[in-house]
Amino acid sequence: MKALVLAGGSGTRLRPITHTSAKQLVPVANKPVLFYGLEAIAAAGITELGLVVGDTHAEIEAAVGDGSAFGLQVTYLRQPAPLGLAHAVLIARDYLGDEDFVMYLGDNFIVGGINDLVERFARERPAAQIMLTNVADPRQFGVAELDTEGRVVGLEEKPARPKSDLALVGVYLFSPAVHQAVAELKPSWRGELEITDAIQWLIEAGLRVESSVISGYWKDTGNVTDMLEVNRLVLESVEPLVQGRVDAVSELIGRVAIEPGAVVERSRVVGPAIVGAGARIQDSYVGPYTSIGASCAITGSEIEYSIVLPRASIAGVGRIESSLIGHDVEITPAPNTPKAHRLVLGDHSKVQISS
Fold it and tell me: What is the value of pTM for the model shown?
């Protein structure tokens, strides 16, 4: 079995972060989301992986390399535009050959890995196997309809009137039969080749499509709220470890990881939290569920339930919560007079100001 990981999307819901960074490389607990998926694939015993990339290919290739760090052999497959999940299968046809494969969306996060899913597919050999989960608003997802015996009888992408609350999770397993289905597809109303249409083709062709409703945790990390929630979940399992320097008057409370070269002075860090390599925390408070990236500087400030990407600087700011702060950002207090907000914001920024 091979793996096909999709990392070609533009990440519009994470702008402005994704104007300059691939959405799959935005970190949770100081590790890119994409890496969790690669580790799960390797843990399932899969070694050959096709990585579908788009405009951010250079950044992703620099981060992943040849895949050897994950125990994988990575082949990069260029997608000229994000034209749908089934389009990614189409351009990977030669790479995949006639082998079974798992398709994994690079910005998805699944607790518990995919070992059981892969083992079940190898044992039962359906044409396709999908993972489902109950969601509050299925209109935002591909939605599955099951019969009274739990078999998949229909699929629809982002329906206006969903027939169930079962959304497709971003992991699929396919036999080579899917290639014929993909070859028959026409673009949907969104102008994309939909993987849901390909699976529906398999069903209508009389081929077996199996599903399982996952009980574990799944998130599509496509927006800031979900990124922060996944960061919270991962930090729940962080082990307390001090590899940097913490002075005698600072406090580390709970599960706090201080990475090599980090310095904490005259500060309090309440876990679960992680302070990245080479970061400096001075005269500050870092609260629970916060990831401070490498080489950041937090001075005279308070921050909680947030993700701070590498090399950001926060100085003299009273309180920051529920925030995603990008690479090389500088945050400082505004002058007291005149009382005004002074902002330099990129395209598609979202700002909340307490007057």
Answer: 0.83
